[in-house]
C-alpha cells in the first residue's frame, strides 16, 4: 500500500459464483466501504467484476460522478476521494476484485496503474495457489521462472475442466495441486495434459 | 493480381474490420496471416508486453503450438526481447550463427526450420508496447524496400490494440493492452475445452473456433466464452468445420 500511497485496499473474492466475501482489508473503515458495495450492488468493485476490466474513478466527490450515487456518498463520508478496482482474473477464470482507495483525488500515474495490475495478477495466483495447497513461498518461483502465460497451461486448464466436469478455476487449482504434489513445474504438467499423457479425473 | 494490389487490398480489409465492433484476437491473427502472404516469411507472430514488462503471445499466423512456445520463450533473450528493449528493429540473417547471441531461442527456431528472423517494434506514441516477429525459411533478410511494409503492419497492430471497441468507457493504453492479453488467454482455455470435448488436437481446435465465428459472423472471443460457459455445444463446432487436420 505504501507503494501506491493509498488510504487502504480491499479484496473481495467469489463465493459460490457470486462476489461475496471480503478476504482482506487494510483497516476497519475500508472494510465497511468495501462491503457496502456488495450490499448495495453498486460501486467500482461490482463494475470491475461485471465488466472484467479495471474501473478507475479519480474523483469520487465530483457531483458529475453519477454511476454509483449511494456508494459515492458513503465512500466520501469515509474519507475516500479516489478509487481504483482491478479484477482478479486469468482469462475466463474470475476469482475476485482488488480495490485500492485513496484519500486524495487524482488519477493513478502510469507506473502506479501498472503496479495495480501487477498486484492484481500476483493476488490472483496467490489465491489460486493457496487453494491448490501450495505454500505461499512457491508463488515467487511460479511468477518468476515460469510465467503462467504459456499457452499450454491455459489449454490444459480447459482440457482438465472437461475431464473433471468442473469450472476453469477448479481445473487450474487441480493442475497446480498436481504439480505441487509431484514436485513438477506447472509447465511440464500442462504439457503432459495437452499431449494426452495425463488426465486429471475424480473429485479433488 | 499484382503485389501492389494485394497490399492495397490487405490494408482496405484491415481498415474495414476496424470499422465494426471487431474482435482484437481475430484481427491480429488475420494480420499475421497477411504478413506471411506479403512479406516473404514463413511464420509471423505478435508479442505484447504486459503490465509487468513480460512479453506475451498475442497472435501467431499458424497458431501451431510449437510456434506459440517459440514466441513465448523470448523473455530474457531473443529477437523480440532485444527489439522491445532497444525500441528498434532487430534481425538475424542466419540463426545457426547466432547461437551465442540467443542460446535458447536460436537452436529451437533452427530446429523448427527457420533460418532467419526479424523483429519489428510496435509503438504507441513513441513507446514500444510489443513486437512483430517474422520468421523466414531461408537465410538472409527481408528486402530493404519491404521493411516499411513490415513496420506498417506493426503499426496497424498497435492501432488495433488501442481501438478495440468492446470497452464502454475510454481506457488508458496499459489497461487496453492488458484486456487484449486476457482475451488471448480465454482463446487458449477454449481451445483446451474444445479439444478435450471433441477429441481433437488443440491446433485443430483453433481452426474450428475460428471457422465457427466466421460462419456465424460472431466475435471469436464471444464464441470462446460461450464454449467455456457451456452455452455453446462443442458438437456444434465439430460439425461445421472443413478442417480435417486434427
Structure description:
- The complex is a heterodimer of chains A (204) and B (246).
- Chain A has 204 residues and is of the alpha+beta class.
- Chain A folds into two domains: 130 residues, Beta-Lactamase; 55 residues.
- In chain A, 47% of the residues lie in helices and 19% in strands.
- Chain A has a five-stranded antiparallel beta sheet.
- In chain A, a hairpin with a 2-residue loop joins strand 1 and strand 2.
- The mean pLDDT of chain A is 85.
- Chain B is globular.
- The two termini of chain B are 33 Å apart.
- In chain B, 51% of the residues are buried.
- Chain B has two domains: 163 residues, GAF domain (Beta-Lactamase, 2-Layer Sandwich), CATH 3.30.450.40; 58 residues, Arc Repressor Mutant, subunit A (Orthogonal Bundle), CATH 1.10.10.
- Chain B is of the alpha+beta class.
- In chain B, strands 2-1-5-4-3 form a five-stranded antiparallel beta sheet, sandwiched between helices.
- At the A-B interface, helix 4 and helix 6 of A face helix 3, helix 7 and helix 9 of B.
**Number of domains as seen in the coordinates of chain B:** 2
Order of helices and strands of chain B: HHEEHHEHEEHHHHH
Order of helices and strands of chain A: EEHHEHEEHHHHH
Tally of alpha and pi helices of chain B:
10
**Overall geometric form of chain B:** globular
Q: Tell me, what is the CATH class of the largest domain in chain B?
A: Alpha Beta
Which superfamily, in CATH terms, is the homologous superfamily of the largest domain in chain A? GAF domain
Distance linking N and C termini of chain B: 33 Å
Q: What name does the CATH topology of the largest domain in chain A carry?
A: Beta-Lactamase
The helix fraction of chain A, in percent, is 40-55%
How many strands in all of chain B? 5
Q: For the report, how would you describe the main beta sheet of chain B?
A: 5 strands, antiparallel
Instruction: Summarize model confidence as the mean pLDDT of chain A.
Output: 85
Q: Count the strands of chain A?
A: 5
Main structural class of chain A = alpha+beta
Q: Order of strands in the sheet with the most strands of chain B?
A: 2-1-5-4-3
Q: Cα-atom Rg of chain A, whole angstroms? A: 18 Å
Indicate the percent of residues in helices of chain B. Answer: 40-55%
Looking at this structure, what is the CATH superfamily of the largest domain in chain B?
Answer: GAF domain
Number of domains of chain A: 2
Biggest beta-sheet profile of chain A: 5 strands, antiparallel
Amino acid at each position: 500500500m505504501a507503494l501506491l500511497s493509498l488510504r487502504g485496499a480491499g479484496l473481495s473474492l467469489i463465493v459460490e459464483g457470486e462476489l461475496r466475501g471480503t478476504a482482506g482489508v487494510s483497516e476497519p473503515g475500508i472494510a465497511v466501504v468495501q462491503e457496502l458495495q456488495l450490499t448495495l450492488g453498486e460501486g467500482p468493485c461490482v463494475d470491475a467484476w461485471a465488466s472484467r476490466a479495471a474501473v478507475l474513478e479519480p474523483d469520487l466527490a465530483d457531483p458529475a460522478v453519477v454511476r454509483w450515487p449511494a456508494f459515492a456518498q458513503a465512500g466520501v463520508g469515509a474519507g475516500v476521494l479516489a478509487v481504483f478496482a482491478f479484477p482478479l482474473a486469468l482469462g475466463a477464470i474470475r476469482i475476485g476484485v482488488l480495490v485500492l482507495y485513496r484519500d486524495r483525488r487524482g488519477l493513478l500515474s502510469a507506473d502506479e496503474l501498472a503496479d495495480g495490475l501487477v498486484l492484481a495478477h500476483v493476488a490472483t495466483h496467490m489465491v489460486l495457489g493457496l487453494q491448490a495447497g501450495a505454500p505461499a513461498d512457491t508463488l515467487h518461483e511460479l511468477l518468476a521462472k515460469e510465467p503462467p502465460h504459456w499457452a499450454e497451461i491455459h489449454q490444459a486448464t480447459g482440457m482438465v475442466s472437461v475431464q473433471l466436469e468442473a469450472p476453469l478455476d477448479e481445473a487450474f487449482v487441480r493442475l497446480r495441486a498436481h504439480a505441487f504434489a509431484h514436485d513438477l513445474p506447472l509447465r511440464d504438467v500442462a504439457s503432459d495434459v495437452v499431449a494426452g499423457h495425463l488426465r486429471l479425473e475424480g473429485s479433488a | 493480381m499484382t503485389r501492389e494490389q494485394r497490399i492495397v487490398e490487405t490494408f482496405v480489409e484491415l481498415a474495414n474490420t476496424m470499422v465494426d465492433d471487431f474482435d482484437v484476437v481475430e484481427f491480429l491473427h488475420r494480420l499475421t496471416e497477411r504478413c506471411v502472404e506479403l512479406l516473404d516469411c514463413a511464420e509471423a507472430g505478435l508479442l505484447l508486453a504486459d503490465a509487468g514488462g513480460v512479453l506475451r503471445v498475442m497472435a501467431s499466423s499458424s497458431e501451431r503450438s510449437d510456434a506459440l512456445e517459440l514466441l513465448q520463450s523470448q523473455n530474457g533473450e531473443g529477437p523480440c526481447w532485444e527489439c522491445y528493449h532497444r525500441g528498434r528493429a532487430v534481425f538475424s540473417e542466419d540463426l545457426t550463427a547466432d547461437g551465442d547471441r540467443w542460446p535458447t531461442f536460436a537452436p529451437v527456431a533452427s530446429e523448427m526450420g527457420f533460418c532467419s528472423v526479424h523483429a519489428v517494434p510496435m509503438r504507441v506514441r513513441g513507446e514500444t508496447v510489443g513486437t512483430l516477429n517474422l520468421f523466414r525459411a531461408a537465410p538472409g533478410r527481408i528486402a530493404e524496400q519491404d521493411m516499411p511494409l513490415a513496420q506498417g503492419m506493426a503499426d496497424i497492430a498497435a492501432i488495433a490494440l488501442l481501438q478495440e471497441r468492446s470497452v464502454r468507457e475510454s481506457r488508458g493504453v496499459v489497461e487496453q493492452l492488458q484486456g487484449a492479453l486476457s482475451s488471448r488467454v480465454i482463446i487458449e482455455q477454449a481451445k483446451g475445452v474444445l479439444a478435450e470435448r471433441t477429441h481433437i488436437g488443440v491446433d485443430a481446435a483453433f481452426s474450428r473456433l475460428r471457422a465457427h465465428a466466421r460462419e456465424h459472423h460472431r466475435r471469436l472471443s464471444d464464441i470462446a466464452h460461450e464454449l467455456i460457459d457451456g452455452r455453446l455445444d462443442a458438437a456444434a463446432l465439430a460439425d461445421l468445420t472443413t478442417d480435417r487436420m486434427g
